[in-house]
């Protein structure tokens, strides 16, 4: 969306730096650069002069920046009118959770929502990341909860709501389990990697493939069954494997000198959709807990 590019242009004009401008917007420098490159390609002009750590607007960029404030102001006015004239509260709310996540961390919020709107029908389903993103974009899903996708989806708004601990596990008979507290992450390269299909569709799937030798698994139940039999290793949410670790069927590998891995969770919804009182209530309740402690208020204490 070029609105994001215009906001980025104004932030860089103010900060004199892409990295600082991105920080002002709460975005990554790479994401801001993608937006600006797209705008430059559409307009056919260079908007930014980059000199070392500094970034200044070109003459063409200055012209665009002068008009950007008016354009953004107009869009804010449109958004307000949409909210003011939005339709009455819906009779049903469709919520899609990534299938790697349990329902119970969200059950309290859902019960409160039912009390807030007794006549509201609530549909909750487990889907893969790609299906959730597509559902939100086409309007079939009102709200989705996924791992941080790391990509730029112009039609989607995202909000961090929590963190999930991710651990590396193998069966006790697997070769990697011989020294579970002494292994290096590089040791996994030569072993079969079981990769959940639901991970595909966001940035994490590009960094979680430590081996070219991997199987793409459609269900977590099937994946864990193979793990217990000694087939491969996997990087999974701790809540999925905790019972198997405690029973001794799986072993958690703890890399030397590496701190615990926590993947952020995002609540997503379609950008510029009318936010009725039900949607606003739901977004407000899905708050971000203290990092590293819980997933939407549910602690994962050992």
Summarize the structure.
This protein has 10 helices and 13 strands. The protein is of the alpha/beta class and about 300 residues long. The two termini are about 45 Å apart.
Can you walk me through this structure?
- With 302 residues, this protein is α/β, with parallel strands linked by helices.
- The protein is 39% helix and 24% strand.
- It is built from 10 helices and 13 strands.
- The protein has helices at residues 2-15, 18-25, 29-43, 59-84, 104-116, 129-138, 204-207, 220-228, 238-247, 277-285; strands at residues 48-51, 54-57, 92-98, 121-127, 143-147, 156-171, 193-196, 214-217, 234-237, 250-253, 261-270, 294-295, 298-299.
- Strands 3, 4, 5, 6, 9, 10 and 11 form a 7-stranded mixed β-sheet that branches. A two-stranded antiparallel sheet has the order 1-2. It has a two-stranded parallel sheet with strand order 7-8.
- A hairpin with a 2-residue loop joins strand 1 (48-51) and strand 2.
- Helix 1 crosses helix 4 and helix 2 crosses helix 3 (29-43).
């Amino acid at each position: 969306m070029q609105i994001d590019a215009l906001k980025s242009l104004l932030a860089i004009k103010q900060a004199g730096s892409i990295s600082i401008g991105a920080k002002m917007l709460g975005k990554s420098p790479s994401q801001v650069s993608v937006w600006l490159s797209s705008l430059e390609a559409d307009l056919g002009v260079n908007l930014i002069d980059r000199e070392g750590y500094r970034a200044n607007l070109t003459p063409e960029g200055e012209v665009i920046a002068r008009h950007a404030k008016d354009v953004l102001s107009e869009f804010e006015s449109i958004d307000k009118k949409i909210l003011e004239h939005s339709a009455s509260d819906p009779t049903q709310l469709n919520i899609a959770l990534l299938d790697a996540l349990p329902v119970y961390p969200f059950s309290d919020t859902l019960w409160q929502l039912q009390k807030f709107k007794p006549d509201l029908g609530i549909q909750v389903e487990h889907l893969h990341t790609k299906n959730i993103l597509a559902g939100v974009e086409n309007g079939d899903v009102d709200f989705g909860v996924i791992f941080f996708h790391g990509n730029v989806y112009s039609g989607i708004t995202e909000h961090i709501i929590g963190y999930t601990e991710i651990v590396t596990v193998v069966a006790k008979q697997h070769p990697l389990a011989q020294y579970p507290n002494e292994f290096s992450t590089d040791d996994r390269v030569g072993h079969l990697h079981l990769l959940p299909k639901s991970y595909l569709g966001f940035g994490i799937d590009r960094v979680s493939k430590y081996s070219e030798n991997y199987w793409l698994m459609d269900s977590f139940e099937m994946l864990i069954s193979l793990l217990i039999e000694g087939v491969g290793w996997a990087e999974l949410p701790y809540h999925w494997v905790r019972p198997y670790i405690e029973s001794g069927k799986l072993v958690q590998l703890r890399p030397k000198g590496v701190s615990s891995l926590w993947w952020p969770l995002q609540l997503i919804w379609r950008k510029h959709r009318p936010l009725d009182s039900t949607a606003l209530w739901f977004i407000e309740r899905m708050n971000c807990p203290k990092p590293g402690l819980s997933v939407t208020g549910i602690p994962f204490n050992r």
